[in-house]
Amino acid sequence: MSDESPNPPAATARAAAGPLAGVRVLDLTRVIVGPYATQFLGDMGADVIKVESPVGDLTRSVGSQRNPDMSANFLIFNRNKRSIVLDLKRPEGQEALRKLVAQADVFVVNYRPAALAKLNITYEDLKEINPEIVYCRVVGYGEDNPNAAKPAIDDVIQALTGAVALQGALTGTPSYVGLPMADLTCGLFALGGILAALYRKSVTGKGDEVEVRMYDAMASFNLSPHLAGESFVPALAPAIYPRSVSSNRKPFETADGTITVAPYTDRAWRSFLKLIDRADLLDDPRYATVHARSAHLNELYEMMIPVIKSKSSEEWMRLLEAADVPCSRVQTTQDLVNDPALYDAGLLTEHDHPTEGRIRLLNNPVRFTNAPNSIRRLPANLGAHTREVLLELGYDSAEVEALTQAGAAREP
Questions:
Q1: What 3-state DSSP class applies to 84?
Q2: Domain boundary, last residue among 307, 329, 351
Q3: Are 224 and 216 in contact (CB under 8 A)?
Q4: Which end of the chain has the smaller Cβ count within 10 Å, N or C?
Q5: 310 class by beta-carbon count within 10 Å (0-12 exposed, 13-18 middle, 19+ buried)
Q6: Does pTM top 0.85 for this prediction?
Q7: Looking at the domain assignment, is residue 232 inside a domain?
């Protein structure tokens, strides 16, 4: 459990250990793709100010919740952030944002292009205020894409970039991947771009615009393994990696359960054949190398099915681990939550939230020895830091009150 206050003073947050301590991030992102990226920046020590509309991030209302506006989906993606509510449709809200931009290092947004222009928060607008700003824009499509003006959500991007069809090739029925893969993956692309631009800024003193196009990012991600024979001109084979979509590439049934067995390398394959008393296949040219085995995948999997079913899961795990053959039990996400390894590693931790009671949060999985990540702030209630941040900008209490009365800002 964190021993620190869930909402410490700003000075404490900015001075906290972490490789990005002293970096201020303005987070105008919603749902998952942007908040996932900015949360990691906060974990690494940045002071992340989440600028929300008066109704708040959509995910505040999605999923399990004890209280309004504090759903599990919001808690998962918004630790280590301060929440300030500004109505950017009002001139006073835009003026407060401009003051924030003048003091910021990074600005992250996933609004559609028309909204950016209407609210005067394009890169061209903000670099006039702060030429050194690192401006990251996450969009569905590039301006040269025929879908440029259309909304983009995870399901749509999965469908357009091959993921849905890949699931269909694997199972016989086109379907979405069982997690918001496009949002999460593109969030990591955004994080990488922001960190690179921050490094360039530290060397040159110059800001930059970082654009992450979800369609482009997921097309690159999905084609990385599946460009396959289309890597050559003319193509030697279709754009598909056969191993990934083999109907037999799935966990194996044992006598009493299910396990994963993956003797992929030559060494692991030979160890596995010896283990199952099939030394006769050791020098079979069809299976002797990774390249040869890739052409006979279905034969191999079909041979393995009855073999694995002949023993219990516990027996196989003991034998395979002793032979150093890659293997594992098949865990559900609920099994994962209950896995002691997550708690022993400090990845899943429990905290006392001032309004939500006892909650679990995931720590950043990237580890630093000399500048560690930390959870300094628990997910904030909507507008919890509006007054605090506005006072830091130079507004006095009366001016903050006037902004809230006018509807340009909001406190809890």
A1: strand
A2: 329
A3: no
A4: N
A5: exposed
A6: yes
A7: no
